[in-house]
Design a protein that fits this description.
Elements lengths: L9 E5 L4 H11 L3 E6 L20 E4 L5 H12 L3 E4 L5 H4 L4 H7 L4 E6 L14 H7 L19 H26 L4 E5 H8 L1 H8 L19 E5 L5 E5 L3 H11 L7 H5 L7 H12 L4 H8 L6 E3 L3 H5 L2 H5 L3 E4 L2 E4 L23 H4 L3
Parallel strand pairs: 1-2, 1-4, 2-3, 4-5, 5-6
Antiparallel strand pairs: 7-8, 8-9, 10-11
Helix pairs in contact: 1-6, 5-6, 5-7, 6-7
């Protein structure tokens, strides 16, 4: 097993999609023994499962939860496990005979992590939804996109992963830490609406102080400010510019030659909000005079807060990310390395993604 900081911890992951499997991957990356309970219809023997990076590091068993034998298998695993994570709609695990009361009766020290979009309670608790719906309801999606255009979905990174899986992992680990003193497990209700709302706390503060407007694309962090945006270069490639602080903006101005016909003091001054449209046009015109590679060579290794916008393949080959081994290759698949880093107990990918049911024999004796 891995020597990561969670070595010795056993987690049951009830197979699902979205944030639950990603949370299981994070725990497995950090050294936990994650046993994924797959359904009979999940494709036993399907080699495509080998390429599902989100299941790396886990072991897999198959259990038909519609049968007593399948339920009994999970309950036996519960007896020797530290945590269970599941992403069913509220009430489903209870109907299967695997709800938190039943599981914690078998193992009072068990931490039972529940991952849903709407949470275990509330008017929408039993309604279907996906990442885009959860971030829409919390106000987060409203703030994303260009003025005059519909809000732009940020992949499924904000609801499923940022507001979902990350909060499930934090909740499970916090409950395990508390268990060290109380000796008892508990139920963790992780809802994507709650987590997404939590990660927007900064914007609650900015709105309260009058530093943020509800107009999309009109604020510092949403592409409204000319010094925090993405610009097209001469070759059609893009640069990310994040020169928010005055000293970084000044460095960007000096090295780029922006408005070289003005005085030093006037050039280095960050524009006021009413000047943003004109400054944006001027910056856009300047960035279109060189290629992405030329701007990168000129700006990226200085305190200008400018970096190229790379595609997936380019990102894996960037010198900084190569030096840190941010991406690794396992079994012919390039994938993100475990994160974060630890000085004494480095995590690692201990096994490739399993074929459903692959570890039934070795887990049977758990």
């Amino acid at each position: 097993m891995s020597g990561g900081p969670l070595a010795g911890l056993r987690v049951i992951e009830m197979a699902g999609i979205g944030p639950g499997p990603f949370a299981g991957m994070l725990l497995a990356d950090l050294g936990a023994d994650v046993i994924r309970v797959d359904r009979p219809s999940s494709g036993a023997g399907d080699e495509r499962a080998r390429r599902d990076v989100v299941n790396r590091g886990k072991r897999s068993v198959i259990a038909d939860l519609k049968t007593q034998a399948g339920v009994d298998l999970v309950l036996r695993l519960v007896e020797s496990s530290d945590a269970l994570i599941e992403g069913m709609r509220p009430g489903v695990m209870e109907r299967l005979g695997l709800g938190p009361d039943v599981c914690r009766e078998r193992n009072p020290r068990l931490v039972y992590g529940r991952m849903t979009g709407w949470g275990q309670s509330g008017p929408l608790a039993h309604v279907a939804g996906h990442d885009i719906n959860y971030i829409a309801l919390t106000g987060a999606l409203w703030a994303m996109g260009r003025p005059g255009e519909p809000p732009s979905p940020p992949l499924n990174l904000v609801g499923d992963y940022g507001g979902g899986a990350m909060f499930l992992v934090v909740g499970v680990l916090a409950a395990l830490l508390e268990r060290a003193s109380s000796g008892e497990g508990q139920v963790v209700d992780a809802a994507m609406v709650d987590g997404t709302a939590a990660i927007t706390a900064l914007f609650s503060a900015l709105r309260a102080t009058g530093s943020w407007t509800d107009q999309r694309g009109a604020n510092v962090l949403d592409g409204g400010a000319p010094y925090y945006d993405v610009y097209e270069c001469a070759d059609g490639r893009y640069l990310s510019v994040g020169a928010i602080e005055p000293q970084f903006y000044a460095e960007l101005v000096r090295r780029s030659g922006f408005r070289s016909d003005e005085t030093e003091a006037e050039r280095l001054r960050q524009p006021a909000r009413e000047e943003w449209p004109q400054y944006r046009a001027d910056w856009a015109a300047l960035f279109r005079t060189r290629t992405q590679a030329e701007w990168t060579a000129l700006l990226s290794e200085h305190d200008t807060c400018v970096q190229p916008v790379l595609d997936w393949d380019e990102a894996t080959d960037h010198p900084h990310l190569r030096a840190r081994a941010t991406f690794i290759e396992r079994d012919g698949i390039v994938q993100p390395a475990p994160a974060p880093r630890f000085s004494r107990t480095p995590p690692g990918v201990v096994r490739r993604p399993p074929v459903p049911g692959e570890h039934a024999g070795e887990v049977a004796g758990v």
